[in-house]
Specification:
By secondary structure, the chain is α/β, with parallel strands linked by helices. The protein has 19 helices and 14 strands. It has four domains: about 130 residues, Response regulator (Rossmann fold), CATH 3.40.50; about 170 residues, P-loop containing nucleotide triphosphate hydrolases (Rossmann fold, 3-Layer(aba) Sandwich); about 70 residues, Orthogonal Bundle (Helicase, Ruva Protein, domain 3); about 70 residues, Homeodomain-like (Arc Repressor Mutant, subunit A, Orthogonal Bundle), CATH 1.10.10. The chain has a five-stranded parallel beta sheet, sandwiched between helices. It has a five-stranded parallel beta sheet with strand order 9-10-13-8-14. It has a two-stranded antiparallel sheet with strand order 4-5. β4 and β5 form a beta hairpin. The structure holds adenosine-5'-triphosphate and magnesium ion (MG). The site of magnesium ion has 3 residues, from α7. Magnesium ion binds next to α7.
Length: about 475
């Protein structure tokens, strides 16, 4: 349903159009000439303007101009008896959405209005989103120009104002808490408390009483009644960090908060109403935990209403340059040391690193480099990257089909992905072998010539054979 302005000097024509458009439940307003139309356009908001070309007091182009001055997202359709090609081309060039000739088939006009109102809706949605993203409080702290980080900021803009539960996943240091705080800051609850609790850091019994509070004598040592964090977060946001680590009992109680907005303190039968928005984060694959019977399925679905995944830094290495520059300034200010530019070679070195600790690790590396670096610019040797002693024994480096398939993207090009994986593993192995091809080949279970061939195929940098020391045991 759209709000349509019909502009035509012939009352009969306006009536036919009016009747046809109302069949699609559009709201229709009529203007008998260009001047009246211009006036209405200023005063009311239309989705679509359908205008005659030649009228006694002006032309369709005048109407188009009035629309563009007022709100260019409104779509304009010309309907004209003098359908010359020149005029059609001219009006489209000036920004008209469509050009129809009289006499017209009602279906053609109705379809054109439908398409025009869809275009208007799309343009307006985009514009709204853009301002929402620009207005995001503190979202500029969430750095990164990769598509996925842009989408994360856009996502925050979309969900912040709603009360929906968001499940934030990602490896350690990818910014899960940062995202949770940004959602809170941009929500209607921004002035109310943001209460974060790390579910992994407290014991099972304590977690329950931390979250829900307890009555006096609920357990040994509970000499006073106490309210819990859920109550403290009333009207605000409750951030459940490491949510996968919750005990079954706490999970059951949390489910009740989400489903009914009700809590019971430990040792109490009194039900209290709370209004909290829950945000949760985990570095684990929660769906897998459900499958393994470690996490309640019903709770999982309540938490994962809107999931968002923050990819590891090594998968968005195009962000590293931007991050380095911005974080350097941030750190320099915090640490009261002068900021320094970072050399291209240093960025290149970091780009090839796997960052198991993600952005937190990058921040630590930059901090050390800023404090200890001797040069006016940050150089590769200022960054001490600590590869694990050996790939094979490094925790978390074990590659299983399950771990690779845990986060399936929307679309997958298997051939390309396999090639990327092969390339990445070769780069890592060469890195470990400090460029010694023979070592890397042995590690990968390839012959030297096979590895040499693949190095050529992927255009990898020539390696230094003379380097004797490697990381392989
Ligand atoms: N996109 C980003 N832009 C700028 N800083 C970031 C970004 N992502 C993370 N950081 C910074 O990196 C550090 C780690 O982020 P955060 O604590 O949110 O990670 P996390 O995912 O919660 O990690 P963990 O699972 O270990 O708790 C913080 O100092 C945060 O400010
Ligand atoms: Mg965290």
């Amino acid at each position: 349903m759209a709000k349509v302005l019909i502009v035509d000097d012939e009352p009969g024509m306006r009536r036919i159009l009016d009747v046809n458009l109302r069949r699609d439940s559009h709201v229709v307003v009529e203007a008998g000439g260009a001047a009246e139309a211009a006036d209405l356009i200023k005063r009311e908001d239309f989705d679509v303007v359908l205008t005659d070309q030649k009228m006694p007091d002006g032309s369709g182009l005048d109407v188009l101009r009035a629309v563009q001055e007022d709100d260019p997202t409104t779509s304009v359709i010309f309907l004209t008896a003098v359908g010359t090609l020149e005029l059609a081309v001219e009006s489209m060039k000036l920004g008209a959405f469509d050009f129809l000739t009289k006499p017209f088939a009602p279906d053609v006009v109705r379809a054109a209005i439908r398409r025009a109102s869809e275009r208007t809706a799309l343009l307006r949605e985009n514009a709204a989103l853009k301002t929402a993203v620009q207005k995001l409080e503190g979202a500029d702290e969430i750095l990164g120009e990769s598509n996925v980080m842009r989408r994360v900021r856009e996502f925050i803009g979309r969900v912040a104002g709603t009360n929906t539960t968001v499940l934030i996943t990602g490896e350690t240091g990818t910014g899960k808490e940062l995202v949770a705080r940004a959602i809170h800051r941009n929500s209607l609850r921004a002035k109310k408390p943001f209460i974060a609790i790390n579910c992994a850091a407290v014991t099972e019994t304590l977690l329950e009483s931390e979250l829900f509070g307890h009555e006096r004598g609920a357990y040994t040592g509970a000499d006073r009644a106490r309210s819990g964090l859920v109550e403290a977060a009333h009207e605000g946001t409750l951030f459940l960090d490491e949510v996968a680590e919750m005990s079954p009992a706490a999970q059951a109680k949390l489910l009740r908060v989400l489903a009914d907005g009700e809590i019971q303190r430990v040792g109490s039968t009194v039900t209290r109403r709370v209004d909290v928005r829950v945000l949760a984060a985990t570095h684990r694959n929660l769906a897998e935990r459900v499958h393994d019977g470690l996490f309640r399925e019903d709770l999982y679905y309540r938490l994962a209403v809107v999931p968002v995944h923050l990819p590891p830094l090594r998968e968005r290495s195009e962000d590293i340059g931007v991050l380095c520059r911005a974080l350097c300034l941030q750190i320099a200010e915090e640490m009261k040391v002068p900021a320094k530019p970072i050399s291209g070679a240093a960025v290149a070195k970091l780009t090839n690193y796997s960052f198991p600790g993600n952005i937190r690790e990058l921040k630590n590396l930059l901090e050390r480099a800023l404090i200890l670096g001797q040069d006016a610019e940050l150089q590769p040797e200022d960054f001490f990257l600590q590869p694990p002693a050996s790939i094979a024994s490094a925790p978390g480096m074990e590659i299983t089909v399950e771990s690779l398939a845990a986060h399936l993207p929307k679309r997958l090009d298997l051939r390309k992905t396999m090639a990327q994986l092969e390339r990445a593993l070769i780069v890592r192995s060469l890195d470990f072998a400090k460029g010694t091809q023979a070592e890397a080949a042995r590690y990968l279970g390839l012959s030297r010539s096979d590895l040499g061939y693949k190095i050529g195929k992927y255009g990898l940098a020539p390696v230094h054979e003379e380097r004797a020391v490697s990381n392989f045991g």
